[in-house]
């Protein structure tokens, strides 16, 4: 089979809920990322793109009607370039990358754009249609920004609790303290701020037209565990999870160019990383936070390597509690996990986060000279995805 490579990657800066990017439609965010990644491949004729696979978790508002195809049209690509939109909730853009890489490997495509977008700010309220005309009672609008909505009454109640409550249960079961969670969260902010200051993200981030945002908006400079300890629990009065040790609602987009070695040579591109293994796993919906444990192991097995070979890990930080649970289970050196900050600081626009962590992982491997890296993401309703990258220019 043909090998698949990550050839280029970009993302927008991630904005806070109601923040700098709030006025930008999700299809326009997607367009910014799509144009940005193609700018990284100036010798590539867009007509040569075999497909665009785009991730989005919501798709209830301006991101409806196949937002991937909308971005292709808005970006001015030839109308002959096809596109699809996939939804695996938080893992949507990592799912898109997996689909793109499989298409290349099996020979169905030579070059594919993958990515994702989410505007959690602009996610609409929705109303179910009434069972009969002209009902006399009130109607309730349901927010689609995050979590369960319009739940089927046959779904077991213990599966439909909030994401925060799921992680309170996880922290309680595994004995993960509030102190550890706050320390982890503070470290995420500190590492992200340092990475931006050092210029690590300069080449990975592209601007959004009409938006004055030069770095991720949720990063708190000077964050410490002591400051985070002052925040009140968000889901239980005696709980451990707060707004400070969980990822924020965010807006943003990310894009990846994935292709074969032959396509890279033909279009004058140097591969950033080889996509060496993929893994998916599912557990009880309440245990979504630790599903990356098995997903990463599956991806490593398919790549033919072990944790001992891994020098960099990008784990999407939905919550500090679940992130710590995964790191503890992997027995990996914590210093190699999210060394440039994670979603608690950077933000978690659901449909874009998988592409973000994959791009960051490739950049970290190239900067360090390390050979093997793992990107993993937990997904609501009990799922997770993971991908292993190999640095073709590894020195260690």
Description:
The protein has 396 residues and is of the alpha/beta class. It has a domain at 4-123 and 247-390: Peroxisomal Thiolase, Chain A, domain 1, CATH 3.40.47. It is 31% helix and 20% strand. The strands form 2 sheets. Strands 1, 2, 3, 4, 5, 8, 9, 10, 11, 12 and 13 form an 11-stranded mixed β-sheet that branches. A hairpin with a 3-residue loop joins strand 12 (372-379) and strand 13 (383-390). The chain is globular, with a radius of gyration of 20 Å. The model has no long low-confidence stretch (mean pLDDT 97).
In summary, what is this structure?
By secondary structure, the protein is an alpha/beta fold. It contains eleven helices and 13 strands.
Strand content: 15-25%
Termini separation? 27 Å
CATH class of the domain at 4-123 and 247-390: Alpha Beta
Mean pLDDT: 97
Might you state the CATH topology name of the domain at 4-123 and 247-390? Peroxisomal Thiolase, Chain A, domain 1
Order of helices and strands: EEHEHEHEEEHHEHEHEHEHHHEE
Based on helices, strands and strand pairing, what is the structural class? alpha/beta
Spatial extent as radius of gyration: 20 Å
CATH superfamily of the domain at 4-123 and 247-390: Thiolase/Chalcone synthase
Please bin the fraction of helical residues. 25-40%
The tally of beta strands, per DSSP, is: 13
List low-confidence stretches: none
Shape: globular
Number of helices: 11
Q: Per CATH, which architecture of the domain at 4-123 and 247-390?
A: 3-Layer(aba) Sandwich
Q: Give a short account of the largest sheet.
A: 11 strands, mixed
